[in-house]
Every structure is written in C-alpha cells, then in structure tokens.
Amino acid sequence: MAAPHSVSAGPSSFWVVSDTYHVPVLVEPVARLAAGRRRVVDGTVGGGGHTALFRAAGADVLAVDRDPAALAAARRRLGDDGVRYLAGSFASEVVWQAAADFRPDAVLLDLGVSSHQLDADARGFSFRPGAPLDMRMTGEGSTAADVLNTLSAAALETLFRTNADERRARRLARAIVERRERQPFATSDDLVGAIRRALGPRSGPADFARLFQAVRIAVNDELGALADALPHLRDALVPGGVLAVISYHSGEDRLVKVAFRAWARACHCPPHQPVCTCGGTSRGTVLTRRVIRPTAEEIAANPRARSARLRVFEVADGR
To answer: Are residues 48 and 77 in contact, defined by beta-carbon separation less than 8 angstroms?
Structure first.
C-alpha cells in the first residue's frame, strides 16, 4: 500500500469517467487505491463506475448491490470477465460470508443513492413535484410515507435532528403531525409543504435535499446497517488490505471516522481507566488523516459529488 500521504484527491482529469446509470465520485483517489489490488469487493457497485477502475487495474471484483437495476446496469457495462455479481445489502450476513470467502485486498463502499435512483421519480427519492414518498432501496418494508404518517412527534424530531442536523427539528415534527391529521402524506409535495411551513418561505432545494435524505436514511436504516457492516467487512480483508468508505452525510462520515480511529488504537480500555488492562493491539492504520473531498473541478462537472467524503483504513499485516 502506498504511504498514507499519497491517498489524496489531487489535480487530474480522472473525474470524466462516467456511464449512463451513475457518475462515480472521487475517481482519482479510488484509482490510486486500485493500483496493485488483486481482489476487490465493491459493496455498492451501482452502474459499475468504480468497478471499471478496479478491472482496469487488473483486479477481480465481487460486485455487490441490493438494487437489481444497479446490478443489471453494471453487468451490461462490464460483462462477466473478472466480475462476480451478488444481489444483496453490504450489511447482510450473506454478503459478509461471500466477502470473507473472496479474500479481498480492498473493499469499497460508496454510500447513498445513485444518480439513476435520484432521477427515477417512481423510486421516490427526489423532491420533484408529484414523486411518491417511497425511498425504499429494495421495494420492501415501510415507505417514506409510512414513516411520516406513523412516527410520533418525538421520533420524527429525533429523525431530523440525528439524520439532518436540523436545529428546527421539533417545529418540523409538529408540522408533519398537524399536516397528517388533515390528510396523510403521499407525495413529495406534501413533505415539501411541511418543510416550508416549519422552516419558512425562504427554505429551498438545499433544505429539501437534506431533509428528504434524512427520511431516506430512516426508511432504509442506513446508519444501523453501516455500523453493523464495517467490522465484518474489515475482517474479510487479507492482512494489508484496505477498507474505503465514501459517505455523503455527516452521520455516516462521523460513524466511519469514529470506527476507523477506534480500530487504529492499541488500547481499547474505557477512556478514563488509569491503567491499560485489555492487552489490545491496533487493528491497523487510518490512511486518511484528513478526509478526502472532491476537487472544485469535479464538483463543477458533477454537482452531486459536492458532499462526498472518503476515508480509508488499512488492516495490519500481523492481525
């Protein structure tokens, strides 16, 4: 693995890599990570943009996604040579076992939703007028409308405070409860209206995007799934392998940062314990001392990349 300081964004034209399904983000730093890798798990393959980089670097790839449309798009683009496709969530035991059996030297998670999912109104991820409040990644379980129509005011407040860092979360929760007493939530217009009522007429697309994202995270239990998956994917790596996570939300990024820092510590005793008694050893090294963000050039070409953040952890050789 290259030295930690070499895992960086840096100037380049790598960001032009694209496909019809999804524009991959942070392509240059991912390409740097791909160099020299032989077996990679792409836990969120999407349209295959990042997997294409791994294949170009000579790696075999286990391409995972819980969205069947994403797997189909990746297969159309990449074919079957050197790529094995697996339908499932990176947070499922089936995927963890498949990853362990694959013995990867790199695992990548690109969290959030793809450009294709955002642009498909029927999936209900966007705040375009008339879009259904669905937001389910797999089409199973409770929809966004169910969440908004059934959670208590206290639970809604926690949702928006935790998933969106919304300081007016209580006001928004009350607006939602008052709105649903008159008529249940069904479309994006209903949630946009509640947001405007709580945040005021100056609220706009940035607020809508942040708060719709907060609901999507709750619908799919994305933070819980990430917390469950990280240690299993770390343990699937061969010694010296790397776990790379691209996040788009402060809660996701915070969870990854805390986990990576904890794994890098030799002592795992409670922080106020005066003497170490755990006999612990470090599980590896955080390679991204500073989080990697997209360049201004990339953001100009792909505005949806603006909130992307990459962190990388390297597993110790002697674990």
So the answer is: yes
Torsion of CA 200, 202, 203, 206, to 10 degrees: -170
pTM score:
0.82
Domains contained in the chain, number: 2
Span 186-218, pLDDT tens digits? 999 999 999 999 999 889 888 998 899 899 999
Contact 305, 243 (CB under 8 A): no
Which residues have CB under 8 Å from 139's CB, separation 6+? none
Q: What is the domain-level CATH number for residue 299?
A: 3.40.50.150
Do 174 and 155 form a contact (C-beta atoms < 8 A)?
no
233 and 88 assigned to the same domain: yes
Distance separating alpha carbons of residues 303 and 174, to the nearest angstrom: 32
**Start-to-end Cα distance in the chain:** 16
Domain shared by 46 and 190, yes or no: no
Amino acid symbol at 274 = P
Rounded-to-integer distance, Cα 154 and Cα 299, Å: 37
